[in-house]
Amino acid sequence: MFPASADKFAEAQGCKAYHDLDEMLADDTVDVVTICTPSGAHRDPAVAALNAGKHVLVEKPLEITLAKCDEIIAAAEANGVKLGTIMPSRFSEANLALKKAIDAGRFGKLTLGDTYVKWWRTQEYYDSGGWRGTWALDGGGAYMNQAIHNVDLLYWFMGDVAEVCGLTDTLAHERIEVEDTGAAVVRFKNGALGTLEATTSVYPGLLKKTEIHGTTGTVIVEQDDILLWDFAEAQPEDEEIRQKFGKGSATSGGASDPTAISSLGHQKQFEDFLAAITEGKTPAVDGQQGRKSVELILSIYQSSWSGQRVTLPLEKDPVHPE
What digits encode the pLDDT tens for the residues 34-48? Predict the structure, then answer.
């Protein structure tokens, strides 16, 4: 089925389909490989491509364990090629405006950073693929699969995490090994606190939301809309930002339907990755950046399984209790 689908796609797009990974990697006309296999099957094709001298862009998560992430990163460094992790939410114009305001110091002292991914997925969604909802190939549930984009955003906005306390459970679905509901509290290294909520158990599914607060400002982004943009010291561009990203510009963003997720962020990230290759710079989201979100999610799992706070960085991958 899959080779036939590849052939059909290639014919429609005017490109070549390969039925064998080694054949593709031996082709000198292939410069960049993007890895879109199930999450827990990223390492092998990524490392093979990197060892073949190809630049590699890996779908989120980079991998489902830190050990596998590190193998991919080491292969990129050893072969002197570019490595990127797909995190398209960083390329949203609303999120870029928020990041610019943080970097400009407009929030004063950052005090609280919260992110919420309250989505709905049917039982049929999990039943549709044998890898979905498994530790071996999905690597986790609502955090690792759906909310990882917002986990990445919170790191990007607030900085590294010092410690985490989390709870996870499976409350609305059957025949899955992983969590469909989770809540976590974190302390960032800058002293600020934060929360991360992730679920696929909330009908009908809500737009994802991120709230950044400080002593001189607050911004709330829902999907790609800015609901609140308020600073103690106003700037000339503030009203323009409110108008441009006001309520109503965003789509459903996959809150209940994965096919509703826009591809624009992916396009912008591919453009950034190609520019990094041609200009000899680091991609906006490289392997080390991609590793960070995996580490935080694994820390949430470890905290939930152990019933204790977990300090970052992790010394080793947590082991799921049997």
Answer: 999 999 999 999 999
User: What average pLDDT does range 7-32 have in this prediction?
Assistant: 95
Would you place residue 256 in the very low, low, confident or very high pLDDT band (cuts 50, 70, 90)? low
**Residues 143 and 66 both lie in one domain:** no
Which of 47, 70, 85 finishes a domain? 85
Residues 158 and 172 grouped into a single domain: yes
pLDDT tens column, 87-100: 999 999 999 999 99
Find the domain containing 37 and state its range. Answer: 2-85
The total domain count for the chain is: 2
- Considering only CA atoms, which of 103, 138, 116, 144 is closest in space to residue 295? 144
62 and 100 co-located in one domain? no
